[in-house]
């Protein structure tokens, strides 16, 4: 592994760290793993706004499932 | 290169900066700092990496909660003091902090610009000032530099936090001095302003207590024990202002509005009312009470008005169909107009108060002429300007509300009226309100209180306007016509307002009772307990309005609108509003150019009546003109008289001859077909009238017609089909009366007819003929002819359909009375019928005795001669004898005959065994005929005498009234009986 490669890696790690900090500050409720996934997806050309939309939609779905199970339980 | 390409790095940065700014605005400084720091660190990285993944974070970001804020604090602490334990805030830190630090202190407390320590050089967008304890300066470049140092190297400890460097002692002293100066100058201004705030609870007037009490110097009054009950005094002009504010219903320090307790919904003097120096507490209290009363009255009215307005705007959205008929929740238009007029008055009052207040302020500022401002002066000018109008209005309104809702709750607020269900019909509420207003106006005008009465009159005039408008619409369009085709209620057709005093009984136009009963005044309801629905000022004009509206409606229905008949002038074009009408009336009565409100309710009534009389009379006249010209009133009247009253002698005689001939045979004469054919045949030879209009029918049973009594023809009924509008004149009842008269005439002529055929027994025949002729003569000449002539005379003068109807009804009732068809002359009528029956019976006797060939019939033309008298029918009738009936009748007649002059009571017994009730039963033994004739003669004598006495009683009595003269003639004619 070349030193250049190592540099790049650590820089990426730092970037991810700061991004995670910002993410925490902005209260996005993303854990580090998810954030890393998101970043890599965006690196690969996914529209960040669309991705954000998808995440929000998934969260909404997630909250709805227990509600529905409650309703069905009754 | 970004594959998406849609995200600009600057956009992300801008958004992030926006977040930071938002955090600062929300005073989440640490959060903002943390964000800023993180951003800067990110930027340094991004400058190398050109990564823009913050976009997703921004999109996903949520408002920071407490955990996020905690995290932010920790984060910033971590960034600043990496590796060092976090130090808490200590008292020494706080005490060493500069009190006036930061931009927000700038300018406050009059601090000079230099007094504030802090970031004067920082720009507005760069609000990220760090806390004072921060070792770092706010310079972004500096920070960036440090951050990059922190990023790249691990020796952060090389930059330990250093306290701000400044000269401690010198700065503190200068700051303190300048601050104190600034504080005092500021306090002075505040104190100066507060000194004017007399409404503050800690306010003290500058009262001199160091001098002895002197009546001539108000400033020493504070030392007097009477005045010193309250420890707070305010100047009188301020008190006046407070009162003015209170009168407008606003919060003030002198009088307060109570929402509960014993004095619910009242203004009362405040419990902590400040005193006035020169007034004793009692004096002040009484003055405040007086103002409180006025304020209470106005406030009540104000609430009523706003409740009405609210309700009115609400009910606009409601469709009319949902309104209930029995209990109406909707407020009447008159009430709404009244609320509006009251509102106008209240606004005038508010304006007056505001003007007064302005005067006070101006005078205080030294503008305008000098003024004396006092509570007493205010009260006096208030009374001069408004007198007792609000009190009167409120009392009247309370009374009306209590009656309309039938509520017994004395504490009921008038504003609740808008929501309460009304227990009176809308028209009655309207009438009640208008009457009460007018009554109060007159009361106060007669008391010599022109201010109140003028104000009330204005309100009255405004409140009456909707009703006046309804009158106009009624007169303009006439009654709403309900067509036969649309009966069952199409919602589109015009309806009368429930509030209007004329009610629609929902009859169809072609109903004969439509004219008389289709529309009526609501007050004509017979139960007395109900409130009148016609307001007083319309009382006289109401029948006029009703009649005119009906006339116009009928004209519309006939397709002759009124405007076509008055060329040039459109119908009701110059209709005046009620206010204008009142004004013009006041102008007429004005004395020395000043308007007067001194008008009695009769004046109002007359005013309205005079205004309406012209158009109403015109409308009615037009209608009667149309009836005469277009509907051939006279033609039909004459035809009916000729038919029913047999004034067309020749044709009717022909018809009767045919009818009698038929009766003399044993054939049924009551057959519908025969009657109408006979009539048609007779009439077709003349040009008299259209026989298709007439229908003759018999409504009795078959048995009755076959019996040979005068009653047989009683079932005969003649109908004359008059064209449409005239059906109101000749309705079913009129036709019934005409038919009765016709039947009576027919009975007499029948008797006369049969008597004429007898050529033997001259004595008996002569007696009967005499009576029948006298009777016929009286009826034809003295009753029918006289009445018809007088009817024609009066009818020619009639101005309206109502007049015609009235005249005709009177005419009919006169005819009935004179023909003895009324209920109180039943006995006389039955006696006459008995005599007529006797004539028929006599005829039968004669036929039985001499045979039908012996009869002399001048009018028999083409009718087959009657069959032999010993027919089967007659034999059957012979067997059908109830012997004792006749015997008893005869004995009764004999007994009455013996004491005719003394015992009147016995006479009615005769009629129990009436001839008309008995079947003719004749035994034809020759030796009996003489005895029978003798008996008949005696009975006839008794009956004629009875009739004579009865008629004389009628002629002299008061019961028959104006008919006495006619009966006099009859009685005079009957006197000849004895001779």
Automatic annotation (TrEMBL), chain A:
Record-level GO BP terms: gamma-tubulin complex localization; microtubule nucleation by interphase microtubule organizing center; mitotic spindle assembly
Its job: Required for gamma-tubulin complex recruitment to the microtubule organizing center (MTOC).
Major localization class: cytoplasm
Signal peptide boundaries: none
Gene Ontology cellular component annotations, sorted alphabetically: gamma-tubulin ring complex; interphase microtubule organizing center; mitotic spindle pole body; spindle
Pfam families per record: MOZART1 (PF12554)
Annotated keywords: Cytoplasm, Cytoskeleton
Protein name: Mitotic-spindle organizing protein 1
Family annotation (InterPro entries): MZT1
Localization, UniProt: Cytoplasm, Cytoskeleton, Microtubule organizing center
Record-stated family: Belongs to the MOZART1 family.
Automatic annotation (TrEMBL), chain B:
Residue span(s) of domain Gamma tubulin complex component protein N-terminal: 240-630
Keywords per UniProt: Cytoplasm, Cytoskeleton, Membrane, Microtubule, Transmembrane, Transmembrane helix
Compartment(s) where it occurs, according to its Swiss-Prot or TrEMBL record: Cytoplasm, Cytoskeleton, Microtubule organizing center
InterPro entries with a match to the protein in the record: GCP (IPR007259), GCP_C (IPR040457), GCP_C_sf (IPR042241), GCP_N (IPR041470)
Transmembrane segments: 730-748, 768-789
An annotated GO cellular component: spindle pole
Region feature Disordered, mapped onto this chain: 111-171
GO MF annotation list: gamma-tubulin binding; microtubule minus-end binding
Superkingdom as given in the UniProt entry: Eukaryota
Domain Gamma tubulin complex component C-terminal: 633-876
BP term (GO), one: meiotic cell cycle
Location, primary (coarse class): cytoplasm
PANTHER family for this protein: GAMMA TUBULIN COMPLEX PROTEIN, GAMMA-TUBULIN COMPLEX COMPONENT 5
Family: Belongs to the TUBGCP family.
Protein name: Spindle pole body component
Organism of provenance: Phlebiopsis gigantea (strain 11061_1 CR5-6)
């Amino acid at each position: 592994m070349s030193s250049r490669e190592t540099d790049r890696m650590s820089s990426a790690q730092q970037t991810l760290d700061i991004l995670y900090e910002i993410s925490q500050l902005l209260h996005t409720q993303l854990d580090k793993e998810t954030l890393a996934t998101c970043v890599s997806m965006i690196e690969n050309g996914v529209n960040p706004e669309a991705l954000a939309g998808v995440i929000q939609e998934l969260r909404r779905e997630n909250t709805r499932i227990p509600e529905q199970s409650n309703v069905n339980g009754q | 290169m970004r594959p998406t390409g849609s995200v600009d790095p600057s956009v992300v940065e801008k958004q992030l900066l926006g977040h930071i700014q938002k955090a600062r605005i929300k005073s989440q400084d640490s959060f903002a700092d943390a964000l800023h720091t993180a951003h800067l660190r990110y930027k340094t990285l991004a400058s190398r990496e050109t990564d823009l993944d913050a976009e997703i974070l921004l999109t996903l970001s949520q408002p920071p909660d407490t955990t996020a804020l905690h995290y932010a604090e920790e984060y910033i602490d971590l960034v600043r003091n990496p590796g060092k334990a976090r130090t808490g805030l200590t008292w020494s830190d706080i005490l060493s902090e500069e009190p006036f630090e930061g931009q927000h202190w700038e300018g406050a407390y009059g601090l000079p610009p230099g007094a504030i320590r802090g970031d004067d050089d920082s720009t507005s967008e760069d609000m990220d000032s760090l806390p004072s304890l921060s070792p770092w300066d706010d310079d972004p470049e500096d920070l960036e530099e440090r951050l990059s140092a922190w990023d790249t190297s691990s020796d952060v400890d090389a930059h330990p936090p250093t306290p701000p460097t400044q000269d401690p002692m010198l700065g503190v002293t200068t700051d303190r001095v300048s601050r104190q100066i600034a504080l005092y100058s500021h306090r002075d201004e505040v104190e100066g302003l507060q000194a004017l705030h007399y409404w503050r609870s800690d306010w003290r007037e500058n009262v001199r207590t160091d001098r002895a009490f002197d009546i001539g110097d108000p400033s020493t009054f504070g030392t007097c024990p009477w005045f010193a009950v309250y420890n707070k005094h305010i100047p009188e002009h301020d008190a006046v202002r407070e009162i003015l504010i209170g009168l407008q219903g606003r919060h003030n320090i002198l009088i307060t509005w109570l929402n509960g307790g014993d004095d619910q919904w009242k203004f009362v003097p405040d419990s902590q009312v400040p005193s006035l120096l020169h007034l004793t507490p009692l004096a002040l209290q009484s003055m405040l009470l007086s103002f409180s009363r006025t304020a209470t009255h106005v406030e009540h009215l104000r609430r009523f008005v706003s409740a009405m307005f609210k309700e009115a705007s609400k009910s606009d959205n409601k469709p009319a169909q949902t309104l209930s008929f029995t209990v109406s929740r909707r407020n009447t238009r008159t009430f709404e107009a009244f609320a509006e007029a009251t509102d106008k008055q209240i606004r005038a009052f508010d304006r007056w108060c505001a003007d007064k207040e302005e005067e006070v302020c101006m005078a205080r500022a030294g503008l305008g002429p000098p003024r004396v401002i006092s509570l007493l002066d205010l009260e006096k000018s208030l009374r001069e300007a408004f007198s007792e109008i609000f009190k009167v209005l409120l009392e009247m309104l309370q009374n009306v509300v209590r009656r309309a809702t039938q509520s017994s709750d004395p504490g009921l607020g008038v504003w609740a009226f808008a929501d309460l269900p009304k227990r009176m019909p809308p028209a009655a509420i309207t009438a009640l309100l208008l009457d009460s207003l007018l009554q109060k106006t007159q009361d106060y005008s007669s008391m010599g209180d022109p201010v109140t009465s003028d104000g009330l009159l204005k309100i009255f005039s405004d409140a009456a306007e909707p009703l006046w408008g309804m009158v106009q619409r009624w007169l303009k369009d006439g009654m709403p016509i309900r067509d036969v085709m649309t009966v069952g209620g199409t919602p589109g057709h015009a309806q009368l307002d429930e509030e209007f005093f004329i009610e629609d009984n929902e009859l169809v136009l072609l109903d004969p009772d439509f004219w008389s009963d289709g529309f009526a005044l609501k007050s004509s309801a017979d139960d007395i307990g109900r409130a009148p629905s016609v307001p007083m000022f319309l009382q006289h004009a109401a029948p006029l309005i009703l009649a005119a509206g009906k006339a116009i409606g009928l004209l519309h229905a006939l397709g002759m609108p009124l405007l076509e008949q008055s060329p040039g002038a459109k119908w009701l074009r110059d209709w005046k509003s009620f206010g204008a009408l009142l004004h013009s009336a006041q102008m007429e009565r004005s004395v020395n150019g000043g308007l007067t409100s001194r008008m009695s309710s009769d004046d109002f009534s007359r005013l309205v009546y005079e205004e309406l009389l012209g158009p109403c009379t015109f409308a009615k006249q037009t209608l009667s003109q149309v009836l005469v010209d277009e509907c051939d009133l006279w033609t039909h009247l004459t035809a009916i008289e000729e038919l029913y009253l047999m004034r067309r002698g020749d044709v009717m005689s022909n018809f009767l001859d045919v009818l009698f001939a038929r009766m003399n045979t044993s054939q049924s004469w009551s057959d519908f077909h025969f009657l109408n054919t006979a009539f048609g045949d007779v009439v077709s030879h003349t040009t008299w009238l259209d026989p298709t209009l007439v229908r003759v029918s018999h409504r009795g049973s078959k048995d009755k017609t076959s019996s040979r009594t005068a009653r047989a023809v009683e079932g005969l009924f003649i109908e004359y089909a008059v064209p449409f509008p005239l059906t109101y004149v000749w309705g079913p009842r009129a036709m019934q009366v005409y038919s009765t008269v016709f039947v009576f005439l027919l009975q007499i002529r029948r008797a006369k007819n049969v008597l004429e055929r007898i050529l033997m027994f001259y004595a008996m025949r002569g007696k009967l003929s005499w009576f029948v002729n006298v009777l016929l003569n009286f009826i034809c000449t003295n009753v029918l002819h006289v009445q018809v002539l007088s009817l024609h005379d009066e009818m020619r003068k009639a101005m309206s359909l109502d007049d015609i109807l009235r005249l005709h009804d009177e005419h009919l009732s006169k005819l009935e009375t004179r023909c003895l068809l009324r209920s109180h002359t039943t006995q006389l009528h039955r006696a006459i019928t008995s005599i007529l029956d006797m004539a028929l019976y006599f005829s039968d006797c004669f036929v039985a005795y001499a045979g039908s060939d012996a009869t002399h019939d001048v009018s028999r033309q083409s009718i087959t001669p009657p069959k032999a008298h010993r027919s089967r029918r007659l034999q059957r009738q012979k067997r059908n004898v109830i012997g004792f009936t006749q015997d008893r009748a005869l004995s009764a007649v004999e007994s009455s005959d013996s004491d005719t002059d003394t015992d009147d009571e016995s006479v009615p017994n005769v009629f129990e065994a009436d001839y008309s009730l008995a079947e003719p039963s004749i035994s034809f033994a020759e030796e009996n005929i003489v005895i029978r004739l003798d008996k008949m003669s005696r009975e006839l004598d008794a009956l004629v005498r009875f009739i004579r006495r009865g008629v004389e009683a009628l002629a002299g009595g008061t019961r028959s009234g104006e008919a006495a003269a006619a009966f006099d003639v009859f009685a005079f004619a009957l006197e000849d009986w004895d001779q």
